[in-house]
Automatic annotation (TrEMBL):
Residues 11-140 form the Thioredoxin domain. This is protein disulfide-isomerase. Belongs to the protein disulfide isomerase family. Residues 1-22 form the signal peptide. One of its GO terms (biological process) is response to endoplasmic reticulum stress. CDD domains: PDI_a_MPD1_like, PDI_b_family. InterPro entries: PDI_thioredoxin-like_dom, Thioredox_PDIA6_C, Thioredoxin-like_sf, Thioredoxin_CS, Thioredoxin_domain.
């Protein structure tokens, strides 16, 4: 049989076309990114996002695909699970900008009030459950907790715009409700009332839970939602009163333009490092001082901190210090056991840890180093119990000034992003949506 080379070439091109288009099909729940839409879909989004930087020929990327798609399916409507093909010539510049050196590399983008998202490498399990659990923690919380003391202020502020209120038995906002607040960030104010707030319940005449209502604004009466407490139905209901936000609210953009204009004419004064936070030279003294409280440890470098670090330190002292007791210590004064136990590193940047000595847990601050608002949100999450805590390991008292040898089971230094181990299988535990991710 004689083969027509033109026909063979055409058939080959048709068969190879799907491979050239990338690893995820158009029907995949994974958001497809390119260099053209990366900024719009990720950097300007109000939603938290996880992005896989991959190459179609990468075996470990293919192994990750089922779990990654399952994570995308489970996070639908809550946060973005996206991917970009770094083997595509048009996307290589974007991948280079984020320092991608191995595949798959997964990065998490969390919106910041400054207009720029905070970015961190995802170091968790390469499973659907691992990705889902971590990404849920990154969903911004724009839900205001309402009680008898704050309800009047909540109703008076922005009275002409719509407000949504959820009456529930839960003490903290669910991922679904937080995601709904993100959808309408800047156009609708979201609040939550717990069933124990009897005065507020009486004010609104609420007797069953959950109850979801929208106050259209002004003197208009509230409208109660009578559908299932699912994202799609609640989204359509709120759309009757306001449109979802697209990217950053216009007010935020105007503020940024105003600040950039003023800064060009006169540079802001250089802040001075405030060293009035009392020092905590040892774990025992630190824990004893904290007692039953949640305390915050600010670990500073030996050298003078940078401008952004100074701004952060001043904010800790002047704005947040009254929420929790704050303590400062140079990293060089901490024992190796202390550094290891709180996952601290030798660094020229300020590191922050909140801890409860009584309950034996700590939380590391990993937000945007230049964003005061990020720190406020972090503090609020700790107060409301919405942030994942790490158990504090037992520390041995120092018996000599000679630093001990590193523990045999000490974690190895971080390496550049590499391929996911082949033996890791897609998570079976995320084969269906967990109720708390979907229902209120």
């Amino acid at each position: 049989m004689v083969h027509n080379p033109v026909v063979v070439a055409a058939l080959s091109a048709a068969l190879l076309a799907p491979l050239a288009a990338g690893m995820y099909s158009s029907n995949s729940p994974v958001l497809q990114l390119t260099s053209k839409n990366f900024a719009e879909k990720i950097l300007k989004s109000n939603h938290a996002s996880v992005v896989e930087f991959y190459a179609p020929w990468c075996g470990h990327c293919k192994n990750l695909k089922p779990a990654y798609e399952k994570a995308a399916e489970n996070m639908k409507g809550l946060a973005q699970v996206a991917a970009i093909d770094c083997d595509e010539d048009a996307n290589k510049r974007t991948c280079q900008e984020y320092g991608i050196q191995g595949f798959p590399t997964i990065k998490v983008f969390k919106p910041g009030k400054s207009g720029k998202p905070s970015i961190q490498d995802y170091q968790g399990a390469r499973t659907a459950k691992g990705i889902v659990d971590f990404l849920i923690e990154q969903i911004p919380n724009h839900v205001t907790r309402i009680n008898s003391k704050t309800v009047d202020g909540f109703l008076k502020e922005k009275n002409e715009t719509a407000k949504a209120i959820l009456f529930t038995t839960k003490g903290v906002a669910t991922p679904l409700y937080k995601a709904l607040a993100v959808d309408f960030f800047g156009s609708v104010t979201f609040g939550q009332v717990r069933d124990k707030e009897t005065e507020v319940l009486k004010l609104f005449g609420v007797e069953k839970f959950p109850t979801f209502l929208v106050l259209p604004g002004g003197s208009a009466e509230g409208v109660i939602y009578d559908g299932d407490m699912k994202k799609d139905g609640m989204l359509k209901f709120v759309k009757k009163f306001a449109q979802p936000a697209s990217g950053k609210p216009k007010d935020d953009e105007k503020k940024e333009e105003s600040s950039s204009t003023s800064s060009s004419s006169a540079p802001p004064p250089r802040p001075t490092f405030d060293s009035t936070i009392p020092e905590a030279p040892s774990l025992e003294a630190f824990a004893a001082t904290c007692g039953n409280k949640i305390c915050v440890l600010v670990v500073t470098p030996e050298s003078a901190p940078s401008l952004s670090a100074q701004e952060k330190a001043n904010f800790y002292v002047n704005h947040v210090k009254q929420t929790f007791p704050f303590f400062q210590v140079q990293g060089s004064k901490l024992s190796p056991e202390f550094m290891k136990g709180f996952a601290l590193e030798k660094s020229d940047q300020i590191q922050v840890r909140a801890l409860s000595a009584k309950r034996g847990w700590y939380v590391a601050y990993s937000g945007d180093s230049a964003s005061d608002e990020e720190l406020k949100i972090w503090i609020d999450k700790i107060k409301m119990g919405e942030i994942q805590k790490v158990k504090i390991p037992q520390f041995e008292k120092e018996e000599s000034t000679t630093p001990p040898e590193p523990a045999k089971d000490a974690p190895a230094p971080e390496e550049p992003a590499k391929e996911v181990p082949k033996e890791e299988e897609p998570a079976k535990e995320a084969t269906k949506e967990t109720p708390e991710h979907e229902e209120l």
